[in-house]
């Protein structure tokens, strides 16, 4: 935790604001390996925090990296369909239906 927050709870509140709801907890984001400090923390729900773990598979499409789950929701692709397409040799982007397979 950063020294500023260790010294003063008010400094923490000044930086982070009040907790938005009882469902929100403090999350290290965007770097979940980083410190609890301004610029690397947010108030997040359990669902948001679950998407920000080291165990997630990350997929990059056109220089945009997101957890696989977010791509699946965004493209309305079923996870089983995604993995079946990968086994058939498609790229991750193709398996998400974002690029046509090369013939």
What Rg is obtained from the alpha carbons, in whole angstroms? 18 Å
Q: Which secondary-structure class do the elements indicate?
A: alpha+beta
Strand content: 15-25%
As a percent range, the share of helical residues equals 25-40%
Which spans of ≥5 residues are poorly predicted at pLDDT below 50?
A: none
Q: What would the principal axes of the Cα set say about the shape?
A: elongated
Strand order of the largest sheet: 1-2
Note the main sheet: 2 strands, antiparallel
Q: What is the typical, i.e. mean, pLDDT?
A: 91
What series of H and E elements makes up the topology? HHEEHEEHHH
Number of helices: 6
Task: Give the SSE layout.
Layout: H1 3-7, H2 9-16, E1 25-28, E2 41-44, H3 46-50, E3 58-61, E4 64-67, H4 68-75, H5 79-87, H6 92-95
Antiparallel strand pairs: 1-2, 3-4
Quick synopsis:
The chain contains six helices and four strands, in the order H-H-E-E-H-E-E-H-H-H. It has 103 residues and is α+β, with helices and mostly antiparallel strands. It folds into two domains: 3-50, no CATH class; 58-95, no CATH class.
């Amino acid at each position: 935790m950063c020294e500023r927050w260790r010294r003063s709870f008010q400094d923490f509140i000044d930086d982070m604001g009040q907790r938005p709801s009882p469902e929100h907890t403090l999350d290290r984001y965007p770097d979940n390996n980083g410190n609890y400090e301004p610029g690397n923390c947010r108030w997040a729900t359990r669902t948001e925090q679950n998407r920000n773990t080291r165990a997630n598979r990350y997929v990059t499409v056109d220089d945009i990296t997101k957890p696989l789950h977010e791509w699946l929701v965004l493209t309305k692709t079923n996870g089983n369909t995604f993995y079946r397409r990968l086994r058939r040799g498609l790229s991750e982007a193709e398996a998400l239906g974002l690029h046509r397979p090369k013939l």
